[in-house]
Amino acid sequence: MALKTTHAAALCAVLLAGGCSFAEDALFPTSNTTAQPAAAAVPAGQQPLSLNTGSFEPPGVTQGAATGTFVGTKVGNLRNDLGQLQGTLSKQNQALQAIRNDTVQDSQRYHGTVAAINARLQVGTTPGNPILAQQWNAAQAELDKINEDVLKMNRLANDVTSSSALAAYLLESVRAARQLSGAVDEDHRQLRILEDETNRTVVLIERLLTELSDDVTRQQRYVSNERQNLNTMALAIKNGQLYGTSLSARGGLSPASYEAAAAAAPRAAVTSDGPLVTIRFDKPNVNYEGALYSAVKSALDRRPDSTFDVVAVAPAGATPGQQALNASTSRRNAEAVVRSLTNMGLPASRLRMSSAAGTGSTGEVQVFVR
What we know:
7 helices
């Protein structure tokens, strides 16, 4: 693929001896200095979930004296219906406040566990530390509790929707009662009061539904983001290195936009312009994921709409059979790099994999940014 750069040469900083290097300035030129690995820091942006705080306690129903008319009896029945509806609304409001309280507490416990894991990773630890693995499992269980809270809030929203339909029907019934014959002035006075109180109840229920919908949407987005962050954290624990938040948190286009951009981009051959990352598979178990995460994160921070090409570069072979074996091995290595990137939270729609023949004796995987 053709990479457009305006500088004469790319400076590569070797991050892992014989393993991985990246040339950030080759694609995002800032200054003509050698890049140095950044100091580890606890990931920012991981904050407990914040929900709405509205309370929706109904105002009550004004009682009225019986008039002895048919309309007066109708008014009494409608007043009782409104009282029952407001009683149901009061219970639904209490349920909402309880779910919100549980969700915030579950979120705080989850972030406390995540903070403990990040703190340990920051000071350094062994790859696959079993204590961190246990803490990760605890964080996963705590996030599952938050997801259960989402389901509870969804069920509550369904109940409130039923109350909304009943309130609308009750309001129409109150208005229709004013058209009945045989009423006295007191009946119409009570009907006006009842209509006002029913209308206020309708508005209160609609406000409750609006906040419920907002809370559910916020919770679902939060749980989805944190699951991606946990996937990235699992990779960090495996390697004993602090990474940060999921790469999915960076970038300004939707997956559909990335797919469209990838489809429109020409599949040109790799030019002499340097790749963002070069991973040399010249030894078993190359530890490249820390350098890869840092390079891709930096690229996304500078240009959020970036997409990436992962190229398997096969070494030369003396025979056709050896060449085929080298190509297969290089492709497996490239697939492993793609899996690492998706585990870090980079959407698959932003990745494209291809193969190329090399001239050296060592297989490589090169990552280019577009």
